[in-house]
């Protein structure tokens, strides 16, 4: 007699990647919902409005491409986000905690906890990289990740040097071109 069950393969033992069920429509909904919250935020709204010259459309399109690249593996995003953020004079260290809190609320309102967790892990890594680069440009250390209330301004000027080969931002070693 022939056994009708298929043989167990290696793939059957692999955990399912919950982000595999995502599509571009999901990411577009996330980006538009999230940046709607950003626009309404008392602190972050003005920072983004100034940086974007109140022209949100191109930014939203770029963020859809960015998150599709991060989550779906598509190769449409063409940008260098670190230099852009380093060059935002109104961007302060405490804004990252606020941004992450809004992103957490938004991802968890739209997706399963597993998928929201994948988004959050990537967002937290990116935010930490930006915080360190901005702090290096300002010649100070970022606040600890758990403390977003220290009130330090982490603006920067581009008169700095990179004696150790750069901070990864490009000045002397790879990104902002300072």
Descriptive notes:
The protein is mostly helical. It has a domain at 21-137: Globins (Globin-like, Orthogonal Bundle), CATH 1.10.490. 52% of the residues lie in helices and 0% in strands. The protein has helices spanning 24-40, 44-52, 56-72, 81-86, 93-110, 113-137. The termini are far apart. One of its GO terms (molecular function) is heme binding.
Mean pLDDT metric:
77
Order of helices and strands: HHHHHH
Shape: globular
Query: Which oligomeric state applies?
Result: single chain
**Helical percentage:** 40-55%
| CATH top level class name of the domain at 21-137 | Mainly Alpha
CATH architecture tag of the domain at 21-137: Orthogonal Bundle
Largest sheet: none
The count of strands amounts to 0
Distance between the termini: 73 Å
Can you tell me the CATH topology of the domain at 21-137?
Globin-like
Amount of beta strand:
under 5%
Which runs of at least 5 residues are low in confidence (pLDDT < 50)? Answer: 8-15, 146-178
Radius of gyration equals 20 Å
Q: What is the CATH homology-level superfamily of the domain at 21-137?
A: Globins
Helical/strand content category: mainly alpha
Q: What's the total helix number?
A: 6
InterPro entries: Globin-like_sf, Globin/Proto
Protein name: Hemoglobin
GO molecular function: heme binding; oxygen binding
Organism: Novispirillum itersonii
Summarize the structure in short.
With 178 residues, the protein is mainly alpha-helical. The protein has 6 helices and no strands. The chain is globular, with a radius of gyration of 20 Å.
Features:
mainly alpha, 178 residues
